[in-house]
Write a structure and sequence with these properties.
By secondary structure, this protein is an alpha/beta fold. The protein has a domain at 317-328 and 339-404 and 486-495 and 520-567: Rossmann fold (3-Layer(aba) Sandwich), CATH 3.40.50.300. It is 35% helix and 22% strand. The chain contains 22 helices and 21 strands. The protein has a six-stranded mixed sheet, with helices on both faces. The chain has a six-stranded mixed sheet with strand order 17-18-19-14-20-21, sandwiched between helices. The two termini are 38 Å apart.
Length: 578
């Protein structure tokens, strides 16, 4: 498709493609009072422009997008009678199913947040693309498959003629998201809704997806509604932004003026929750801090006392020497080359300090953490804990060290047993390791742990599904502390959290490190978070450490080209607000 001219300035656009007026949505329950998810939300999307909806989880962003797409659950979602959504001067609310089939996919398309739950795992990506084209464009099978290959090529999938026959699980996260973009573009829509399309992606892949969306929007002269909680992304892709909190619009306007001079305290709070190099060593202000009447607008990070860093001893608490991990790929029906996941990784972790491990997905970061805990069996190397090699120990000998080494996984939704109450989740490790004198003592210790991570005592009798993502991660941290560890591996522990919840958890981790003298191995692909947390930094690429040293030095003067590429990929706010 030939590249077309850049879109005209907003002032030259005669009308808006989409207009949302007074959108109010309630969710009805038979046993509880109605929950208002969106209240009196209004915004417009001009033709060929990008508008961003910004806010925390629960702010009503995705619900608003589902209303635009006509995908709200009819059994319990109620849109107020005074609400209005007009697309190209046509009212969308109360359209028939037949009318929606002419609009959804062909004129308005949506990219969902998690491609693995949106793509059908039992069909190839080519089949799923072709199916859309055959339904909406009424082309034959060969034409549909040829068009599917062209779409995969357009969104940057390598070897599209081969990958068209691949199943979703055979593609990386970034490639899966590109397939979702291809599906959304298949019928050449005029409006593209992108709902958190880069949330769980590495910075380099995130940058590629953002550039791809911007290029496709310009080439196809589409409008785009970009939904995110990351204001750094908004500053790069959107012309205008609408900031939402608890279902209401707090502030709206052109992106640069909104960021350069935010008027609403909530917008200021979102901007201030992000870790940055300038805020190193200081506690992050959260949304609650900014919204509190006790905190003035001039209040900054210096107003909150930063925790004192524990002075380490001369001897490392944990030392990794020449760690290597190889995964065997041979099977009953095939044999291929073995996969080297980690190669010659060495570092020292001092008591009371944090080693950051950064790199893209597939770089070997998580494998290193799992090998330290013997959740993966290392192929070669040593892990010395207080001078003793963990790999030489029998299972019985290592059982004692399990109490001293703990891990917090990335996804609290998957790592907490949904059938256990929080009390049972916290009690189980103590019970298995013989800590405490019985149920009464376990409950007392569990209550103390909940208090330590800022959770109320009432949480003890509740189940994981009753908590938000940030609260679940606090529970996971409490569980890791139940055995009084000395080293905690934090594997992408804050990557899926909103900026404010992320700030709360990072502050909590700093406090716990100060109070308990913990040492952290902090694994993440978010370079700003890693920099904020870490004393020493390791940069990994394809299983190897390509750069290692003081976190401050590496960020100030990266030597390796891969590190330079990672840092260049970080989304940055405009200088006026960074």
């Amino acid at each position: 498709m030939a590249t077309r001219r850049s879109p005209p300035p907003i002032a030259q656009i005669s009308d808006n493609l989409l207009e949302v007026k007074n959108l109010t949505i309630d969710f009805i329950s038979a046993s509880k009072a109605p929950v208002r998810a969106v209240e009196s939300v209004s915004f417009v999307i001009p033709r060929e422009r990008t508008v961003a909806l910004v806010g925390e989880s629960g702010s009503g962003k995705s619900v608003s997008a589902l209303a635009i797409m006509g995908l709200l659950p009819k059994q319990n979602a109620r849109v107020a009678i005074h609400s209005s959504i007009e697309y190209d001067k046509r009212a969308l609310l109360n359209l028939s199913r037949a009318d929606w089939q002419l609009i959804r996919g062909s004129r308005i398309a949506m990219i969902f947040q998690d491609p693995m739950t949106s793509l059908n795992p039992v069909y190839t990506v080519g089949y799923q693309l072709a199916e859309m084209l055959r339904v909406h464009k009424h082309v034959n099978k060969k034409e549909a498959m040829d068009r599917a290959c062209a779409l995969l090529e357009e969104v940057g999938i390598p070897e599209p003629k081969r990958r068209v026959n691949a199943y979703p699980h055979e593609l990386s996260g970034g490639q899966q998201q590109r397939v979702m973009i291809a599906m959304a573009l298949a019928c050449e829509p005029e409006l593209l809704i992108a709902d958190e399309p880069t949330t769980a992606l590495d910075v380099t892949v995130q940058r590629q997806i953002l550039m791809l969306l911007a290029k496709l929007r310009e080439r196809r002269r589409m409008a785009m509604l970009f939904i995110t909680h990351d204001l750094g992304l908004v500053s790069e892709v959107a012309d205008q932004a609408v900031v939402m909190q608890k279902g209401r619009v707090r502030e709206a306007g052109p992106v640069r003026s909104l960021f350069a001079n935010p008027q609403d305290p909530y917008t200021k709070a979102l901007l201030s929750c992000r870790p940055s190099i300038e805020r190193q060593g200081k506690r992050l202000l959260t949304i609650d801090d900014w919204m509190s009447p006790d905190v003035s607008e001039a209040s900054e990070f210096q107003t909150i006392n930063a925790p004192q860093i524990v002075v380490p001893s001369d001897n490392p608490l944990l030392e990794v020497q020449d760690l290597r991990k190889v995964f065997k790929r041979s099977g009953a029906w095939f044999k291929s080359d073995d996969f080297v996941a980690v190669e010659n990784v060495s570092f020292k972790l001092m008591r009371g300090q944090t080693v950051g491990l950064v790199g893209e997905s597939g770089s070997g970061k998580t494998t290193v953490g799992l090998c330290l805990l013997r959740l993966h069996q290392a192929t070669a190397g040593k892990v010395l804990f207080d001078g003793k090699n963990l790999f030489d120990m029998s299972n019985t000998e290592f059982a004692t060290y399990k109490r001293r080494l703990q891990i917090v996984f990335q996804n609290p939704y998957a790592s907490l047993n949904p059938r256990f109450t929080v009390g049972e989740i916290l009690n189980e490790p103590m019970q298995l390791h013989g800590i405490g004198s019985g149920p009464a003592d376990w409950e007392k210790r569990s209550l103390a742990l909940l208090d330590q991570v800022g959770m109320p005592a009432s949480s003890l009798k509740r189940y994981p599904f009753e908590f938000s993502g940030g609260q679940r991660q606090r529970i996971a941290i409490a569980r890791s502390l139940s055995l009084s560890p000395e080293v905690v591996v934090l594997d992408e522990a804050v990557s899926a959290l909103d900026v404010s919840v992320q700030a709360q958890v990072l502050n909590l981790l700093k406090d716990l490190q100060k109070d308990l003298g913990l040492s952290y191995l902090f694994i993440s692909h978010d370079l700003e978070v890693v920099r904020y947390m870490s004393d020493t930094l390791l940069v990994m690429n394809k299983g190897e450490v390509v750069e290692q040293g003081s976190a401050a030095d590496i960020y100030a003067n990266p030597q390796h080209v891969y590190t330079q590429t990672l840092l260049a990929s970080v989304s940055k706010l405009p200088a006026a607000v960074a």
